[in-house]
Amino acid sequence: MKQTKRQSQQSQCDRGKLLRRRKVAERIDTSEEYVRLANDPNSPYYIPDFPVPIRIGKNIVAYVEAELLDWISKCERVEKRIGGDV
Description:
With 86 residues, this protein is of the alpha+beta class. The protein has one domain (5-82). The chain is 49% helix and 14% strand. A hairpin with a 2-residue loop joins strand 2 and strand 3. Helix 2 (21-27) packs across helix 3 (32-38). The radius of gyration is 15 Å and the shape is globular. The relative contact order is 0.16. The mean pLDDT is 85.
């Protein structure tokens, strides 16, 4: 069964706030290109546990803010455990 536009928007709202790639890059202090490459398994910059974007349009992706914050928190815990600066 095909979702209506309203149902699709509602399911996106259920996931929490969505962030576009530019906002994700700003949050982790890097470039939009690096964020894109972090999700590409063929890239040398691939990060297996980096949040996976969801497609919200033909050429538009967004990231669930809660997933990004969880990932950042996980990275901070690892840094503290190995004694590095965050």
